[in-house]
């Protein structure tokens, strides 16, 4: 039995090195996938079939792998929106016939499936993605094949592709409102805790610049890999730094570990509150009572009182596979399908160029659950209200702050004098 | 010195969790030579068991102590099932066990994703673990002490079991020389099954501890499997004391590197250290002397 043990050890060591390398290289994933995209067929005339009484649309979400945790819900809510639109007459009178693909938490797969959806299934548009890496894998493919991609998650900004529509918040609709809220609370010192990938790094670069302008001192900055839950060592640094507030850009399961370490170290929302940009109604229950009393910055909350929100919540609760609560990324996914409907009907055509032209020349709005959003035809983002919620014992959010009006999207932060052009160039370059 | 004490304490707790995850592997991989990539998912089973026990016994003060033995049995039974249905056919083919158990781990992950809320479930910490212990000015979370005590109890129980019970003696005999053990009338099949049950059960116990530290979801097993294998390999295959020392060293290294550098770099540095160590000393910290002729 032990004759093989040396080989076993070599095998395990090799596997471990491979995994470590994979982790290190994960950040470069988007680049690698560009090659995959480049290997595809050349751009052809659109093969979208609009002759029948249906229109094919592609849904591309990770239903397996690590991101299935979040993306499954987006997929379900897209199905719900499609059913709703079909019941009320379809898009330009055509019923939606959707093709669901699994991105499998693998960025080259996102690129391959995008190409498949556009060239073989001939879909009119693709909806989905969650991580920035998945979006950056899809981007070169939709640009080359002149397809349309609707991306439903808040992200780090610094992007505006003619072939992508962004229905989640860019930084000036989530990060900047959160900082304005902190300034209004008289916060003087801030600790930055994030997962180690492009969104938290870019968000924190922006936060540091704006904090300098607001007179808030950054007393620490810590990153932990996305796949690691134990935050105890880093929380010990927070305890030592004694900040007024913690700005949390951690994502996924690691956030549960952070909240637990925070609670275990004796930190409380009364003395050292957290403001988070990725804890929503869906995530809070997994964290238990330790998260209660802390804050989150989003555009949509289930507790928002708007005309359209009750119907959205009711439809979702009645939907099979429903998680029972609504959240910001879900709502943004819901918007994305309706926004496409509005765009196509304004253009009077499913043609990509006609849709993009309509986006520029006409005012496209949608009565979303977060309020009436309008599309910016130049950067393909939408206007959004900024909201800060405080987590209550039912894992719902009490709204404690709202922006005085809808915030126009500004993905490159060109309207902010404290954001220097050279940093914009550097961050946009780093984000790929 | 002020900075060193927190790192030593936090590192010991991190090491204790690693040790809990690696203990079962040191049995199944170390003693039996099976590369079980589904070990992380057995850990996940333990964590979900803690959640389910908490649904039955609402008081978390009581539910976690109850969950520990229940998780041991649940994960152990899953391990037994895996052994009886799949692993037993592959004892002479370690590479195949690796591939097959990767498949099993994916099936278990997806099953958990289908059954439980995709974002994971909450496991509440008992209130007697609230609070901190002041050690030379550092407010040490009590939960970390719990992890260390739990690991110590598991190690003591396992080594006593291996050393003093007849089952333990038969396991050691089988490891030293399977053929000779068989000729003395030991049923090595029974021994294999039992070893796999105990090894997988220990992963379940580790899962309960992990559920108090991080998220309980379908993906949680993945973050423990590679570090656990590295710890077993670095400690010396089949050597309990080697596994203990290696787990503690990796835990403290992770914690110190995280303090001096960043959380991300700490992972890379700590595992580079282990890999370099394995290059210099491929047999690990300790080696087992076998009478096997093969």
UniProtKB/TrEMBL annotation, chain A:
Keywords: Signal
InterPro entries: ABC_urea-bd_UrtA (IPR017777), Peripla_BP_I (IPR028082)
Domain of life: Bacteria
Secretion signal span: 1-26
Protein name, UniProt field: Urea ABC transporter substrate-binding protein
Protein's organism: Paractinoplanes toevensis
UniProtKB/TrEMBL annotation, chain B:
One cellular component term from this protein's GO annotations in UniProt: plasma membrane
Membrane topology annotation: Multi-pass membrane protein
Pfam families, per the entry: BPD_transp_2 (PF02653)
Taxonomic lineage from the root: Bacteria, Bacillati, Actinomycetota, Actinomycetes, Micromonosporales
Keyword Cell membrane (UniProt): yes
Gene Ontology BP terms: amino acid transport
Molecular function GO labels: transmembrane transporter activity
Membrane spanning residue stretches: 12-30, 42-60, 66-86, 98-116, 142-162, 194-214, 268-288
Compartments where found: Cell membrane
Coiled-coil regions listed in the entry: none
Species whose genome carries this gene: Paractinoplanes toevensis
Name assigned to this protein: Branched-chain amino acid ABC transporter permease
Entry-linked CDD domains: TM_PBP1_LivH_like
Entry's family note: Belongs to the binding-protein-dependent transport system permease family. LivHM subfamily.
InterPro entries according to UniProt: ABC_transp_permease, ABC_UrtB_bac, BCAA_transport_permease
Keywords: Amino-acid transport, Cell membrane, Membrane, Transmembrane, Transmembrane helix, Transport
């Amino acid at each position: 039995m032990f004759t093989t043990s040396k080989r076993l050890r070599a095998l395990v060591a090799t596997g471990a090195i491979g995994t470590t390398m994979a982790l290190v290289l994960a950040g470069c994933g988007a680049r690698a996938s560009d090659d995959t995209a480049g290997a595809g067929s050349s751009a052809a005339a659109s093969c979208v079939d609009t002759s029948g009484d249906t229109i094919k649309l592609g849904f591309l979400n990770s239903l397996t792998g690590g991101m299935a945790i979040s993306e499954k819900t987006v997929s379900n809510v897209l199905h719900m929106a499609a059913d709703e639109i079909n019941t009320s007459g379809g898009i330009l009178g055509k019923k939606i016939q959707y093709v669901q693909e699994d991105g499998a938490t693998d960025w080259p797969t996102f690129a391959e499936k995008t190409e498949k959806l556009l060239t073989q299934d001939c879909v009119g548009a693709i909806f989905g993605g969650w991580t920035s890496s998945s979006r950056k894998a899809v981007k070169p493919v939709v640009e080359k094949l002149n397809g349309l991609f609707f991306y439903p998650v808040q992200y780090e900004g610094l992007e505006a592709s003619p072939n992508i529509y962004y229905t989640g918040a860019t930084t000036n609709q989530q990060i900047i409102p959160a900082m304005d809220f902190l300034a209004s609370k008289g916060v003087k010192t801030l600790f930055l805790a994030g997962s180690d990938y492009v969104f938290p790094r870019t968000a924190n670069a922006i936060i540091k610049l704006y904090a300098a302008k607001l007179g808030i001192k950054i007393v620490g900055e810590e990153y932990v890999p996305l796949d690691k839950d134990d935050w105890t060592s880093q929380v010990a640094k927070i305890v030592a730094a004694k900040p007024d507030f913690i700005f949390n850009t951690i994502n996924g399961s690691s956030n549960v570990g952070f909240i637990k370490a925070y609670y275990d170290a004796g930190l409380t929302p009364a003395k050292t509150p957290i403001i988070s940009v990725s804890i929503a109604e869906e995530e809070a229950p997994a964290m238990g009572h330790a998260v209660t009393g802390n804050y989150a910055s989003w555009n949509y909350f289930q507790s928002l009182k708007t005309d359209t929100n009750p119907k959205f919540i009711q439809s979702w609760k009645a939907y099979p596979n429903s998680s029972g609560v609504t959240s910001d990324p879900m709502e943004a996914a819901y918007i994305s399908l309706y926004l496409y409907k509005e765009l196509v009907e304004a253009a009077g055509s499913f043609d990509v160029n006609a849709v993009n032209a309509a986006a520029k020349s006409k005012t496209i709005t949608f009565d979303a659950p977060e309020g009436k959003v309008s599309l910016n035809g130049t950067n393909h983002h939408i206007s959004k209200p900024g909201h800060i919620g405080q987590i209550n014992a039912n894992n719902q959010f009490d709204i404690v702050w709202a922006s005085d009006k809808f915030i126009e999207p500004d993905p490159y932060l060109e309207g902010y004098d404290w954001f220097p052009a050279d940093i914009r160039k550097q961050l946009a370059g780093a984000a790929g | 010195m002020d900075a060193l004490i927190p790192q030593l304490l936090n590192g010991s707790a991190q090491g204790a969790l690693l040790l809990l995850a690696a203990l079962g592997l040191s049995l199944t991989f170390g003693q039996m030579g099976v590369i079980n990539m589904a070990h992380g998912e057995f850990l996940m089973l333990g964590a979900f068991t803690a959640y389910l026990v908490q649904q039955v016994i609402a008081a978390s003060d009581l539910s976690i102590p109850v969950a520990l033995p229940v998780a041991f049995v649940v994960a152990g039974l899953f391990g037994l099932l895996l052994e009886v249905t799949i692993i037993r056919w592959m004892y002479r083919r370690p590479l195949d066990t690796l591939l097959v158990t990767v498949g099993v781990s994916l099936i278990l992950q997806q099953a958990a994703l289908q059954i439980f809320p995709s974002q994971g479930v909450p496991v509440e910490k008992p209130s007697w673990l609230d609070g901190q212990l002041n050690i030379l000015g550092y407010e040490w979370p009590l939960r970390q002490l719990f992890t260390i005590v739990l690991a110590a109890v598991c190690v003591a129980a396992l080594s006593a079991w291996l050393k003093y019970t007849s089952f333990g003696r038969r396991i050691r005999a089988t490891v030293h020389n399977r053929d000779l053990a068989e000729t003395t009338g030991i049923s090595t099949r029974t021994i294999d099954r039992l070893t796999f049950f105990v090894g997988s059960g220990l992963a379940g116990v580790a899962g309960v501890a992990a559920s108090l530290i991080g998220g309980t979801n379908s993906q949680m097993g993945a973050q423990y499997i590679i570090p656990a294998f590295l710890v077993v390999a670095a400690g010396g295959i089949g050597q309990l004391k080697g596994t203990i020392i290696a787990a503690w060293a990796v835990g403290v290294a992770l914690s110190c590197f995280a303090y001096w550098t960043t959380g991300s770099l700490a992972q890379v540095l700590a595992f580079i250290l282990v890999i370099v160590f394995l290059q210099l000393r491929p047999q690990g910290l300790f080696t087992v002397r076998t009478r096997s002729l093969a």
